[in-house]
Design brief:
GO terms for molecular function: enoyl-CoA hydratase activity; long-chain (3S)-3-hydroxyacyl-CoA dehydrogenase (NAD+) activity. This protein has 180 residues and is of the alpha/beta class. It has helices at residues 2-6, 29-33, 38-56, 73-80, 109-116, 120-129, 135-141, 158-179, and strands spanning 13-16, 22-24, 62-66, 69-71, 83-87, 93-95, 133-134, 146-148. The protein has one domain (2-179): 2-enoyl-CoA Hydratase, Chain A, domain 1 (Alpha-Beta Complex), CATH 3.90.226.10. It is globular, with a radius of gyration of 16 Å. The mean pLDDT is 86.
Length: 180
């Protein structure tokens, strides 16, 4: 992360998935299951926190372009970005569902949700219940900055057109934020 953001030719960045169904669905649970002791969990969490801290404190703007599931570690990554855009459709859900498994978000997600949310009470409820929210509710709560409406069918399928449009909007935002 620091190598990419530290490169002189990079002025801003966009994080977007090639899969229109899923931005990032979080950590692989089998990776967590492989941890044999408390120290291994702590190390994994600390490394994730360090990487997301680099992202969050980057002098170069980073935009998360969210289409599809943005859950767990995926949301933690998005919250570390300086700007977040999400598609307003049924497939785009945002949440920290790991609490339903008895696992706390380990990469700073709780802290960032509380810091970014417009309502402390809503943020606490969001973090403690593990319920997913849609893009509009995430924007209302302060977790998302901008919502993009999905496009209809054309020459390319609607999902592909929407993903391409989301990418264009995110790149434009990254350029504008860099100029400011």
């Amino acid at each position: 992360m620091s190598k990419a953001l530290g490169h002189s030719s990079i002025r801003s960045a966009v994080i977007i998935s090639g899969n229109p169904e899923c931005f990032i669905a979080g950590a692989d649970i089998s990776m967590l299951a492989a941890c044999k002791c408390e120290e291994e969990f702590y190390k994994l969490s600390r490394e994730a926190q360090e990487q997301l801290s680099i992202l969050e404190h980057s002098s170069k703007p980073v935009v998360a372009a969210i289409m599809g599931s943005c859950l767990g570690g995926g949301l933690e990554l998005a919250l570390a970005c300086q700007y977040r855009i999400a598609v307003n459709d049924k497939k785009t859900v945002i949440g920290l569902p790991e609490v339903k498994l008895g696992i706390l978000p380990g990469a700073g997600g709780i802290h960032r949700v509380l810091k970014l949310s417009n309502s402390y009470l809503d943020a606490i409820q969001f973090v403690l219940t593990g319920k997913n929210i849609d893009a509009k509710k995430a924007m209302k709560s302060g977790l998302i900055h901008h919502v993009v409406e999905p496009l209809g069918p054309g020459i390319a399928p609607a999902k592909v057109r929407t993903r391409d449009y989301l990418e264009e909007v995110a790149i434009d935002v990254a350029r504008q934020v860099h100029i400011i």
